[in-house]
């Protein structure tokens, strides 16, 4: 399913959109000098996509914490040990909570270590929770620098390795990196090179303009374009944005950052009898107290874990449907999903994201959780419930299938459905598709595994056709050709 989010307007006045699904697969690099509007652009992307995809923001200046009030993000301050941070990051993926990882108040070395631990925690999680997530890293040159600076080599290596994993290997784990930097020359090339989408803002240094034009495939003489951009204007290119360089003016945002651009204001009037010297050199007793900056909010890591565990995946009102209407609507959504030929080969965690979006569109709220979705998906991949069989008998079949690993359940139910309706035994290709693979050899292995563990008995008739008996159910398929080409009938 394609979701378009609106970035702003093109120079022609038309809306400029970004394909969110394509962005998840291809990553994004944002570049622009200080004051070019990078943070405003990131905020626009986060606000527009908040309802569609889980988000995590690496925030070195605490500028994005205001998203929490409007969109429900959890603010996680970088307190505790690196292990605490990794545990929180893993819980973030498990419970699908959008977060702002606030690094404000840490020195450069501490920020790099904390960011590296958090990104590694997002990256190193079990396969069954590889849910799609946008990972936004502001001031990415701080975490993936090209050269040494005011940080230790251990911190640089840990942070750079985590950023490289995010941009190079994160896609397979559902992580879509969006990195923003003031200067391309300061950002490690192996991190920047993995992005396929680009939004280039105002830039003045020749080396940065040349590198930006190279990334966009523009001629060097066109690099002057980046000097002439106004604040909030970017040149967009990439499969999620545009197939040719396109100038975009970023639209407004709902939330505001914690910092702001300096504004002109008149100087204060001095009171009668006071001189500037007296104000500057007043004794310590009469001088005003120094401004105390608030320290970062102390956060107990265990409290954050409890907050994440308690956070609901969806906060939506009841849809008002009765049980039968709801089940019918959900079955229709699942049937439509499995019609896609590629759906059989995608993991349940990825399909669940699409399922939730379809439930929102269909006003089904709250949507079934992941565990219930996996049960429903297994039945849908098997072709649906066996309508000619008593409901209690079919529920018994689903209970037996629950004893198998999740990825085998659809294949077992496919066989059970055929046996219940006295249909020919499904082919190896049909069983392999239900199992989530294109290899008929894996289907033969799967049948052997089920037979070895007592779930079924395989035999062949005199014509070489396969017959499968399900002893716990007392069902038997009709003979079927194991090498038939058709996948399955619906």
CATH class of the largest domain: Alpha Beta
**What is the mean predicted local confidence, pLDDT?**
81
Sum up the overall morphology in one term.
elongated
Helix content: 25-40%
- What is the gyration radius calculated from CA atoms? 28 Å
How far apart are the termini? Answer: 22 Å
CATH topology category name of the largest domain: Rossmann fold
Helix vs. strand class: alpha/beta
Low-confidence stretches: none
Order of strands across the widest beta sheet? 2-1-11-10-9-3-8-7-4-6-5
CATH architecture identity of the largest domain: 3-Layer(aba) Sandwich
Q: Output the CATH homologous superfamily of the largest domain.
A: P-loop containing nucleotide triphosphate hydrolases
Reported for the largest beta sheet, the result is: 11 strands, mixed
Please, could you describe this protein's structure?
- This protein is an alpha/beta fold.
- It folds into two domains: 4-258 and 300-310, Rossmann fold (3-Layer(aba) Sandwich), CATH 3.40.50; 323-476, no CATH class.
- The protein has helices spanning 20-26, 38-49, 67-71, 82-95, 108-123, 153-168, 189-192, 206-215, 276-280, 301-310, 323-338, 348-361, 370-381, 391-401, 406-420, 428-435, 440-452, and strands at residues 4-10, 15-19, 28-31, 54-59, 74-77, 99-102, 133-137, 175-181, 197-200, 233-238, 242-250, 457-460, 466-470, 475-476.
- The strands form two sheets. Strands 2-1-11-10-9-3-8-7-4-6-5 form an eleven-stranded mixed beta sheet.
- Helix 11 crosses helix 12, helix 11 (323-338) packs across helix 13 and helix 15 packs across helix 16.
- Keywords: ATP-binding, Nucleotide-binding.
- Residues 287-320 are annotated as: Disordered.
- Residues 24-213 form the AAA+ ATPase domain.
- One of its GO terms (molecular function) is ATP binding.
């Amino acid at each position: 399913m394609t979701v378009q989010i609106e970035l702003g307007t093109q120079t022609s006045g038309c809306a400029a959109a970004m394909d969110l699904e394509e962005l998840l697969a291809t990553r994004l690099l944002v570049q622009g000098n200080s004051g070019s509007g990078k943070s405003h652009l990131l905020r626009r992307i986060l606000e527009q996509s908040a309802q569609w995809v889980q988000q995590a923001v690496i925030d070195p200046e605490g500028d994005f914490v205001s998203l929490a009030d409007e969109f429900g993000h959890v603010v996680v301050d970088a307190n505790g040990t690196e292990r605490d941070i990794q545990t929180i990051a893993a819980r973030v993926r498990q419970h699908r909570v959008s977060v702002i990882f606030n690094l404000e108040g840490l020195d450069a070395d501490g920020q790099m270590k904390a960011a590296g631990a958090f990104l590694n925690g997002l990256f190193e999680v079990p396969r069954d929770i590889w849910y799609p997530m946008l990972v936004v890293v502001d001031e990415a040159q701080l975490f993936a620098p090209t050269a040494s600076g005011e940080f230790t080599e251990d911190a640089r290596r840990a942070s750079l390795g985590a950023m490289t994993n995010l941009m190079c290997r994160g896609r397979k784990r559902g992580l879509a990196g969006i990195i923003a930097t003031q200067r391309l020359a300061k950002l490690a090339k192996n991190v920047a090179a993995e992005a396929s989408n680009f939004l280039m803002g105002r830039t003045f240094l020749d080396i940065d303009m040349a590198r930006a034009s190279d990334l966009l495939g523009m001629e060097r003489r066109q690099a002057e374009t980046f000097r002439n951009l106004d604040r909030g204007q970017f040149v967009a290119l990439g499969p999620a944005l545009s197939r040719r360089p396109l100038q975009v003016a970023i639209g407004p945002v709902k939330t505001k950052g914690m910092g702001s651009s300096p504004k002109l204001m008149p100087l204060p009037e001095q009171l009668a009898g006071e001189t500037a010297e007296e104000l500057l050199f007043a004794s310590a007793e009469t001088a005003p107290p120094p401004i105390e900056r608030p320290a970062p909010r102390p956060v107990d890591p265990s409290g954050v874990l409890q907050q994440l565990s308690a956070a609901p995946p969806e906060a939506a009102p009841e849809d008002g449907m009765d049980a039968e209407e709801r089940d019918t609507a959900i079955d229709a959504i699942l049937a439509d999903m499995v019609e896609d030929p590629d759906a059989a080969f995608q993991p349940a965690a990825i399909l669940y994201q699409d399922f939730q979006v379809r439930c929102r569109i269909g006003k089904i709220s709250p949507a079934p959780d992941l565990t219930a979705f996996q049960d429903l998906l297994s039945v849908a991949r098997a072709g649906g419930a066996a309508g000619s069989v008593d409901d209690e008998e079919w529920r018994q079949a689903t209970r037996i299938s629950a004893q198998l690993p999740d990825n085998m359940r659809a294949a077992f139910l496919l066989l059970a459905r055929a046996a219940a309706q006295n249909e020919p035994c499904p082919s190896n290709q049909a069983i392999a598709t239900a199992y989530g693979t294109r290899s008929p050899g894996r289907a033969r292995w799967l049948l052997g595994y089920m037979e070895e563990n007592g779930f079924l008995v395989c035999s062949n008739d005199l014509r070489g056709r396969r017959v499968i008996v399900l002893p716990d159910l007392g069902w038997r398929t009709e003979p079927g050709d194991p090498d038939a080409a058709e996948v399955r009938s619906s």
